[in-house]
Description:
By secondary structure, this protein is an alpha/beta fold. It has 2 domains: 2-149, Leucine Aminopeptidase, subunit E, domain 1; 167-504, Aminopeptidase (3-Layer(aba) Sandwich). The protein is 34% helix and 20% strand. It has helices at residues 10-14, 35-45, 80-94, 114-128, 157-178, 186-196, 209-214, 218-224, 278-293, 338-349, 365-371, 383-396, 429-438, 469-479, 490-497; strands spanning 2-7, 20-25, 56-60, 69-74, 101-105, 145-150, 202-207, 232-239, 248-252, 254-258, 298-308, 319-322, 328-331, 356-361, 376-380, 400-402, 420-421, 446-450, 456-457, 463-464. The strands form 4 sheets. Strands 7, 8, 9, 10, 11, 14, 15, 16 and 18 form a 9-stranded mixed β-sheet that branches. A 6-stranded mixed β-sheet has the order 1-6-5-2-4-3, with helices on both faces. The chain has a 3-stranded mixed β-sheet with strand order 12-13-17, with helices on one face. Strand 5 (101-105), helix 4 (114-128) and strand 6 (145-150) form a beta-alpha-beta unit. Helix 4 (114-128) runs parallel beside helix 5 (157-178), helix 5 (157-178) packs antiparallel against helix 9 and helix 8 (218-224) runs antiparallel to helix 10. It starts with a strand and ends in a 9-residue tail after the last helix. Bound molecules: ligand BES, manganese (II) ion and zinc ion.
Amino acid sequence: MDFELKTSSRSRVCAEKYDALIVLVPQDMVAGDDAASMLAASAVRAGDLECKPGKLLTTYKAVGISAKRVVLVGAGDASPKSLRSAMAAAVNALKTANVKTVLVSLNALHAVTDRVLQAAVVACADAAYAYSTTKPSSTASKLGKVTFATSDAAMVQAGFDKGLALVKGIELAKEWANRPANYATPVLLAGAAKELGKLPGLKAEILGSKEIAKLGMGAFLAVSRGSDEPPRFIVLRYDGCAKAEAPVVLIGKGITFDTGGISIKPAAEMDEMKFDMCGAASVLGTFRALADLKPAINVVGLIPACENMPDGRSVKPGDVVTSMSGQTIEILNTDAEGRLVLCDALTYAERFKPRAVVDIATLTGACVVALGGVRSGLFAGDDQLGQALMDAGESSLDLCWRMPLDDEYAEGLKTNFADVANVAGRAGGAVTAAKFLQRFSSKFSWAHLDIAGTAWKGGAAKGATGRPVPLLVDYLLGQATMPVPLNVNVKARVAKTRPVPKTRQA
Length: 506
Ligand code: BES
Ligand code: MN
Ligand code: ZN
């Protein structure tokens, strides 16, 4: 789908030939004298249109409006959140229709900000998205082009550009997350990273079994043992500023399928464990967005990718393995594999002398019980990092919630047979998992996002959400040494004020 942003007046919007016109109608709309405003005002007056976000009224060949269909949609208080609901409803109403070109009028909103437009663009793409890789017959929406019209396009160009970059990142994350495990093996995931590495400013390095073994990643290899698919350790780099600047490291859990291993999972809904690499997918998506946004920051992405399978060679409950950190781990439950691949990636992260490390993982069913699908679990050993991620969640509408890390939660991880066990009891399962990870993060400022509840949806709408790409992107933009300016074209501004790093000239 193509997006366009242009300056247009309320009356001009009515004269444009599009298959559909979406008019956003906020609760405090000031009526204009153009046909669309009058239509909206009379519908509200008659009680036929509510201004609550997402409430709709659709008409055909309305007098004085050149677009064939008109969708009046309530935009509530015109906040980014309301715009998100409004756009989702409007696009859902149109996507199965014979509609290729859409004009979205933002003219009735009092204030169109960067964040408002960004939310509208992201919601529009999200509603129109359809997975088709292994379902070519999937009726992807016919929507080809969506044009946003506002009274001063230049004012919100930055929000529009950021929206487009986010859409690319979110869609890449969804694509890889949605692919079944036989179309998204560790090797294929590494191939996606290699492709990303061809973009200007990005580099990818892929480590195979031998290199992983040489590094001493005994915990990661223990998980991988039971599978015929070879593991991969993916290292991505985005260099946006001087080499001397310490990078932020993102680590994504990349279990391309989680059967549970010898501690095998029940059959019901096991298919959803193809989504157990959503952390990895979110790292790929974030790097896709960085390539476009070009913030002045260095970022490293690490993805331990493998399958967790039962087999004659699988690791068994009670086996003790030695992690890259040197700590021995008693694997009491082979289904607690995420923390095993992550702990070695955390140790690997030390070599970058990072300013912060954030791991992202579909780590525990307990986190789904605790927070559901609304907010991701946020565990931060460092309050400043915790607050920055919390704030990024709010600003990007990709919410998370701070969870505790009291040392008492680590009691259950004690064992007579190793430095640490990989599981504690059932109680506080999301927290005990985080406490396990924290043992491997003493050398840097660290946070952990448990996205088990937020990374995908089940049921009829089964599919990846692309979360937490928006949160991660906002966090990284906030960490850039030169904050991305508002109301200025991102690319133009960056090019003018910052020398292009060497890596991008190739
Ligand atoms: N990938 C799962 C976590 C998960 C389960 C995410 C269900 C979303 C939905 C993880 O590897 C796992 O199996 N965790 C176990 C840990 C337990 C054995 C301590 C869990 O949550 O049951
Ligand atoms: Mn598991
Ligand atoms: Zn898992």
